[in-house]
Task: inverse folding
């Protein structure tokens, strides 16, 4: 565990040095601040709290942003070290391959944890102080921060999988963009087109549910838009959908564990 | 627990390594004695790096056995890994990190105290630039940083993969001086290079590799003798005697009359003394004598070409 810790701290310090932490905080922080402050205006005198509205607007934007940041952080984590020969060197130290992957994972998670806590948490505090809606909806907001971390972890793990599968950094960069496009944009579009084309003939409710649950970004949306009644009503989504919280969280965890395990498995079989 | 002394720091027996259909290391047998400075010479793609990776336990042999510091490198435990140091070819450390950051990271991974890595920074002459980012380092500084991390934890065995590629001759000398210092304290080293000239005075023994196989191994003197390459005897001849001397010495070896005052005789070791006796008989006709042994690149080429058939 000590080795994993050393590698994680090094990765986090590297994130501080090359301004990744600062960039991510600014990116998430600005988005959150603008959406929370601007978003509180239309609610007027209704009972909707700033943070409830914030969860809806913020989660629909961070579903694009967070996977992108996570992939940018992780795509060259392994292939980059191979290219620089530092991987070869690292593996002659008392370090095993799973420790390399997990060390990087925890390090990158520390970067995103800082970014989410400061970037999302800070503006929420500011908004609560500036608007008189108080701290109503803070549970949903904290839940959104937590699920944002889960979403980060998923795309960091997917980035590693890309990073171990390819032989060049440029390929990894390209593959990551494709991955982002598929999960964040194309999948939902394809699903929508499929539904329209199908016209309720083949794809029933169950099939649709399964198709939704396959995509990690949809899991994130579901988690944020349906977990709390107020948010669900505001978002116009049937609150408390048939997917319970444990199912959504379980699937997200699976989306983290599976790519990580696959990465370690492939790495351990890789001929150096 | 007292450690048993190991006579051979490295012992490789019948090792074969294939990547797909390509055989990269062919049936290699090699022993490196404890404290020895062994140099591995060969063209690019001769299998030097792969052989090192095998010895470092980074990849499995397809056949054969390896013992490094008395154990199988593939199953080496943390303690055994601490005893080896490695400088990979063209290693490029993170540009955003400072020299000290990098050394501190590797020191933590090896469990080495900060005081020790700071003294290594001084040893390799990087103490004044330790707080600068690696991106500002010259090639020589980067290579020294590479060696510095390999020196962490006072390793008993050092692997250096073409450590001086791209360094100018003076930096190269400094680099080998550092390795010599380590060698004096009993560290075994295995250095790869593609030039014999570079390692002339720096090797206790030399192993020449070609197309994955070892074609020769021994001290430079042994390799030279085994190659049987002629040394050139250069004679300064008194005016008017050149033609006569050339005629007299013709049976002894290949004669080349350079000009009226100089004759060169290429002569193999076994007939050298006889040649000297003939020269002595020539008396005043010979004004001076010089012997030029076969050059290192000639010896290298000899082994490279001979194995071609």
Result:
């Amino acid at each position: 565990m000590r080795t994993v810790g050393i590698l994680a701290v090094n990765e986090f310090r590297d994130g501080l040095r090359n301004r990744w932490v600062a960039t991510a905080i600014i990116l998430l922080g600005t988005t959150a601040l603008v959406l929370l402050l601007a978003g509180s205006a239309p609610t007027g005198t209704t009972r909707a709290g700033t943070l409830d509205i914030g969860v809806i607007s913020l989660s629909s934007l961070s579903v694009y942003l967070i996977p992108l940041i996570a992939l940018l952080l992780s795509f060259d984590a392994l292939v980059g070290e191979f290219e620089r020969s530092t991987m070869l060197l690292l593996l002659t130290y008392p370090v095993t391959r799973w420790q390399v992957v997990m060390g990087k994972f925890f390090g990158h998670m520390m970067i995103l944890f800082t970014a989410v806590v400061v970037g999302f948490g800070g503006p929420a505090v500011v908004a609560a102080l500036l608007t008189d809606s108080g701290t109503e909806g803070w549970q949903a907001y904290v839940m959104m921060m937590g699920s944002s971390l889960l979403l980060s972890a998923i795309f960091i793990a997917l980035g590693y999988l890309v990073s171990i599968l390819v032989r060049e950094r440029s390929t990894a960069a390209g593959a990551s963009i494709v991955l982002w496009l598929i999960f964040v944009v194309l999948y939902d579009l394809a699903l929508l087109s499929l539904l329209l084309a199908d016209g309720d003939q083949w794809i029933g409710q169950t099939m649709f549910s399964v198709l939704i649950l396959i995509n990690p970004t949809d899991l994130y949306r579901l988690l944020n838009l349906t977990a709390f009644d107020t948010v669900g009503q505001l978002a116009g989504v049937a609150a408390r959908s048939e997917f319970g919280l444990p199912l959504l969280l379980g699937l997200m965890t699976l989306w983290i564990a599976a790519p990580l395990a696959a990465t370690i498995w492939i790495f351990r079989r890789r001929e150096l | 627990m007292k450690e048993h002394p190991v006579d051979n720091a490295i012992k490789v027996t019948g090792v074969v390594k294939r990547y797909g259909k390509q055989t990269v290391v062919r049936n290699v047998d090699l022993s490196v004695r404890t404290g020895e400075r062994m140099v591995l010479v060969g063209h690019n793609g001769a299998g030097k790096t792969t052989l090192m990776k095998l010895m470092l336990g980074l990849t499995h042999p397809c056949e054969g056995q390896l013992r490094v510091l008395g154990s199988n490198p593939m199953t080496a435990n943390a303690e055994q890994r601490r005893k080896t140091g490695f400088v990979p070819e063209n290693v490029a450390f993170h540009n955003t990190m400072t020299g000290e950051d990098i050394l501190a990271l590797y020191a933590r991974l090896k469990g080495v105290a900060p005081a020790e890595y700071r003294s290594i920074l001084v040893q390799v002459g990087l103490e004044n630039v330790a707080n600068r980012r690696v991106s500002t380092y010259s090639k020589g500084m980067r290579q020294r940083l590479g060696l510095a991390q390999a020196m962490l934890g006072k390793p008993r065995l050092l692997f250096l993969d073409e450590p001086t590629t791209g360094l100018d001759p003076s930096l190269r000398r400094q680099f080998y001086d550092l390795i010599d210092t380590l060698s004096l304290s009993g560290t075994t080293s295995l250095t790869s290079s593609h030039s014999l000239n570079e390692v002339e005075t720096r090797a206790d023994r030399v192993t020449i590799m070609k197309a994955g196989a070892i074609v020769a191994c021994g001290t430079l003197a042994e390799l030279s003798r085994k190659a049987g390459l002629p040394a050139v005897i250069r004679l300064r001849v008194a005016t008017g005697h050149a033609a006569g001397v050339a005629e007299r010495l013709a049976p002894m070896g290949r004669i080349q009359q350079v000009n009226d005052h100089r004759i060169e005789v290429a002569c193999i070791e076994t007939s050298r003394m006889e040649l000297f006796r003939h020269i002595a008989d020539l008396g005043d006709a010979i004004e001076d004598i010089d012997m030029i042994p076969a050059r290192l690149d000639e010896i290298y080429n000899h082994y490279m070409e001979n194995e071609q058939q």
Summary: The first helix of chain B runs from residue 48 to 55. Chain B touches chain A through 31 residues (CB under 8 Å). The first strand of chain B starts at residue 8 and ends at 19. The CA atoms of residues 82 and 110 of chain B lie 6 Å apart.
